[in-house]
Amino acid sequence: MSFSPDQDARAILLPAFDTFDFMDVMALFLEKGGCSVLLGESRSEYVARSMSAERLAGETADVFRAPIARLKAICPQLIVAVDQELGGIQRLQGLVPNLPSLDEAHALSDEALAERCRVTAMAARELGVSMFLAPIADVIDGQNPWLRGRTMGTYPEAVARLVSAFVTGVQSAGITAVTKHFPGFNDLEQDPALVDVSLHTPLDRLLHNALPFKAAIAAGTRAIMTGPAPVAAIDRENAASTSPAVMTMLRDAFGFKGLIVSDDLDAPATMRGRSLLETAIAAVNAGADLLLVGGGPHLEALCDGLAAAAQSGQISPDRLAEAATRVRRNAVGL
């Protein structure tokens, strides 16, 4: 089956919403070729690393399933993503069996940890979820206000073990694990979602701390998310999610063949003064397949802009089609 640039432009976008008030936007998006949605959290929930009391009180399993069912009536193979991090943000808090705490996770055997993750993922599948934006593989050995309270340890070997077990467990339940945030952000002075900041860690340290990503790839992670800020040792000008050099490293040096997901393209450290459309074009050209963006009425114009960029040569139509094909293959479980 062949697809138009308009359909491909929509297939590569992962729009995020923090409420279920999205049918007007998502219905048109899916009807015209979109196939993904991120059911996210509010900024206050993100900062708190916990779902709000209001959400926990009012969001039952049936409440959660209902809007997904409406979307799947339009797009049966819909990718439904959530943040469900071991030791970090858990969007499905109160709806599925808890993932183990970090202390528990470190104490469990590989097999027992994978089983705990599988149980959580099976319950998520029952809700209609198909993708976890997790595990977090970053090893923090400096400061990092962006990832504070979300990472799994300070030693690469220990984090690599948890990452491998998480990937094995959730994917055995049919959930795609999106290991993040390549190549690893061990020491950032500020939050890249709020300010334009860069990582200045030397390359040898980056590679030392990248063991969890190698472990995730060895465990078969179906997707990897690139980070939201420039990594000066690799590319001073472009955030990891818009950097051809970072994508080449992931594909060639790390041997990853799966789906590359961008971090939020709205982040100041990713946009670096560009428009959202310009940033999205840069991400596709760099090698990203699925682009995380904020959902809303602007989505239609962004899709049209990406399609026009492919038709004008700003994006190679073959690169756009390649990205869209990877997303669609993930959606059907291939």
Automatic annotation (TrEMBL):
The Glycoside hydrolase family 3 N-terminal domain, residue ranges: 77-329
Transmembrane segments: none
Protein's UniProt keywords contain Hydrolase: yes
Gene3D superfamilies per the UniProt record, alphabetical: Glycoside hydrolase, family 3, N-terminal domain (3.20.20.300)
GO biological process: carbohydrate metabolic process; peptidoglycan turnover
Catalytic activity line of the entry: Hydrolysis of terminal non-reducing N-acetyl-D-hexosamine residues in N-acetyl-beta-D-hexosaminides
InterPro entries: GH, Glyco_hydro_3_N, Glyco_hydro_3_N_sf, NagZ_Beta-hexosaminidase
Domain of life: Bacteria
Pfam families: Glyco_hydro_3 (PF00933)
Keyword annotations: Glycosidase, Hydrolase
Record keyword Hydrolase present: yes
Annotated EC: 3.2.1.52
Molecular function terms from GO: beta-N-acetylhexosaminidase activity
PANTHER family cross-referenced by the UniProt entry: BETA-HEXOSAMINIDASE, BETA-HEXOSAMINIDASE-RELATED
Similarity-based family: Belongs to the glycosyl hydrolase 3 family.
Protein name listed in UniProt: beta-N-acetylhexosaminidase
Organism: Shinella kummerowiae
